[in-house]
Amino acid sequence: MPLYEIDGDRLRRHDNARFAALGIYERNDLQRLLRDDIAVLSPDLLVVAEEFGNWEDSRRRIDLLAVDKTGHLVVIELKRTDDGGHMELQALRYAAMVSAMSFDEVVAAYEDHLSRLRPDDDVDARAELLAWLDLGSDEAPIISSDVRIVLVSADFGRELTTAVLWLNRFDGMDVRCVRLIPYLIDGRILLDIQQVIPLPETADYQIRVGRKVAEQERRGSDNRDWTRYHIVVDGQVLPDENKRRAVRLMIQKLIERGVAAAAIGRVLPPGRFRPLEGEHQSEEAVQAALMQQYPGVEVSRWFTEHAVVEDGRTWVIRRIWGRNTEPTLTTLQDRFPEAKVSFQRATPESAGEQP
């Protein structure tokens, strides 16, 4: 893919180079450079391990293992080839292997990683992870079983991109392809770094479409929709809601019945119910504060129109819950029984058709 330079009154063409010809290797160069500046892939990533392989077959190792701000592990696989090989299959195996990791196991991996990078420092891996997840030392973090995947290569073949697009149709799947294109210009090596799947400007839309298709296919198989829930307040059954609205409504009703937002935040998975410093009343003010206090956050994934103001802070609820919906509703119901807010699945007869 050529790069063009404006050179006076003409365009000067620069053809892309190849990593092999430049003497750039996967592990010694690309992996090291990305490890030290992982924000070039995504600003919400923290590398917790390199060459991670905490399982019996020690020959299989994850190039980079990261955690995002919402408590999802992220498997990052690197290739310097022009087709990516079969890296998506390898990454899927790795994602399955780390999906059951607990927070303490992530802390242990991060501690080992920091001891290699900063052998002379007195590191506190747990404290650094808690700070990254915006949690206090007294909070109990939960690592999601949904694992994100980032594939990084000089380019991607049709078989790989077709597989990734298909995988992203399924609820809970988040596979991204980032292309690294090297150029040799006037003795300097430049890298063009682009996320190509999904395109950044359409990522949220593509995820929503994929989930809608999956939901329609589930409905078509038995004419039932098990993804809707009734929130029950002191015995009164409210109209059914979809997953994200059900969680939001339960939190709203708990707060209305005297449960503190901070108490709710302590029992939810990390990064799902975020505090903002200051009391922000309008939706625009909440969005501005969210972007300022959490750089790189995707504002469209948050219920900024339903923020909760309490004791000098403003709390916002994440829209996307996926497989965590029912466990979250159960946790909220069981942890605050005095509020008398519970839930029940909508039956085919009770479920409405609202979007």
Describe this structure in words.
β9 and β10 (236-237) form a beta hairpin. This protein folds into two domains: 3-210, Trna Endonuclease, Chain: A, domain 1 (3-Layer(aba) Sandwich), CATH 3.40.1350.10; 229-345. By secondary structure, it is α+β, with helices and mostly antiparallel strands. A six-stranded mixed beta sheet has the order 3-4-5-6-7-8. The chain is 35% helix and 23% strand. The chain contains eleven helices and 14 strands. The longest helix is centred in the middle third of the chain and has 20 residues, at 203-222. Residues 220-225 have low confidence and may be disordered. It is elongated and about 70 Å long.
CATH architectural designation of the largest domain: 3-Layer(aba) Sandwich
Shape: elongated
Please indicate the count of domains: 2
Strand order of the largest sheet: 3-4-5-6-7-8
Low-pLDDT sequence parts? 220-225
Please summarize the sheet with the most strands: 6 strands, mixed
